[in-house]
Amino acid sequence: MFPLHAAGFVGYISLMAEHDHDHDEGSHLTEMDLRVRALETILVEKGYIETAALDRIVELYETKIGPHIGAQVIAKAWTDPGFRQSLLEDASKAVSALAEVGRIGDHLIAVENTPQVHNMVVCTLCSCYPTDVVGLPPTWYKSFAYRSRTVKEPRAVLADFGVALPAETEIRVWDSTAETRYLVVPMRPSGTERWGEAQLAKLITRDCMIGAGLPKKPSEVA
Amino acid sequence: MDGVHDMGGVDGFGKVEPEPNEPVFHHRWEGRVLAMSRAIGVFRAWTIDTSRYAIELLSPSIYLTRSYYEKWFLRNQSLLIERGLIDADEVEAGHALRPGKNMSRGRFALADVEKVTRRGSYGRPAPAPARFKVGDRVRTKNIHPTTHTRLPRYARGHVGTVERLHGAHVFPDSVTTGKGEDPQWLYTVRFDAKELWGADADPKLKVSIEAFEPYLEHV
Question: How far B205 CA sits from the closest chain A CA (Å)?
Fold first, then answer.
């Protein structure tokens, strides 16, 4: 693997970016449509990629790879102590063994909230996120505000999500600076003792699996 | 590099604004950019670390003002040119002007999709025993390489505790500078917030980073 020739590369990428710098927002979006379409055309014409394969990737992320996967995993952890244990020991292995999910990528790590500790996940350097089990990251996760503030003032960030934790609760922030990916196992809400996995899964939001939220209240789920 | 991408602890970016019922993509082109990024991966023309480094090399004014997927697009197009897979005159023309290169693996097709929608594996056999163990007190080095690193500025020169070992992984600092994968032990190192942010920090906050062994020294 040869290195990126940084100086030359900076020239290219800056030139590319300056290409459309004086457009207003409306035509800018159209401009992006055109430029992306042109690049796709080039890659298809040169024989690198098949359009149908790109269509399929988009479809997978829009319909198949999303927070419902993580919700199933958490609901199972809440109801099956053996699975919970395996999940906390090796999340990639435990999740990949679930027939309803199938093989996911390596280095997934599950961290559990308790009455004493609340976990939050961030990537201060880019946008590392447990995509295999939660889907693509939302815009807020990639925002400069979330990336900058979470490691310094997570309680204020939680307040932006309408979440207030007791002052004595420890906040444990995981900055994803390598290829490990963190999934938060939230606490099971009280009043759900008789609930089955499918019903519990409805309480589990994307945000609570990143630690930016809490599960829904039982009364919010019909 | 000490770039604007290294945002941990920077003030002034305002509130976090979650968008209710946010769509996966806000514009059709965003989905195409994501799909192209994944598809190009199979050609192994660059690694995930180089793709991050390429975005860090955007000028601060562009990094701070362009949308997430626009930066991805700029990165893809520029790396494709840099690696010789496409040419600048083709981008200008909006069409291919010559055949593709390095086509021995064949075109990226439907059958390849599953490979690229699951994360790759970055674990590698360890070249040597780990220098640190869980519970060790370690200090992160005060380093400022001008090239890619995954040691964020806010966590440099601070004392923390090794909480987890993750085995050896591809070392981003090395692979992005042409020195090969050079696998290194990876640790979760946990810091008290006061160590990072001073006496006024949240007394009940702990922050961890994933630290490669060369970033660490014994206290």
Answer: 5
How far is residue A199 CA from its own chain's centroid?
A: 22
Tokens of A192: 């759900």
Is A172's CB within 8 Å of B36's CB? no
How many CB atoms are closer than 10 A to CB A191? 10
pLDDT (tens digit per residue) in B107-157: 899 998 988 888 889 999 999 999 999 999 999 999 999 999 999 999 999
| Residue A2 confidence (pLDDT) above 70 | no
Nearest to B37 by CA among B20, B25, B19: B25
Give the C-alpha separation, B158 to B141, whole Å.
8
Give the span between the Cα atoms of B28 and B14, in whole angstroms: 28
- Dist. CA B98–CA B87, nearest whole Å: 9
Render the burial of A44-56: b for 16+ CB within 10 Å, e for the rest. Answer: bbbebbbeebbeb
Is A10 close to B169, i.e. CB distance below 8 A?
no
pTM (predicted TM-score): 0.95
Residues forming beta bridges with residue B78, ordered by sequence position: none
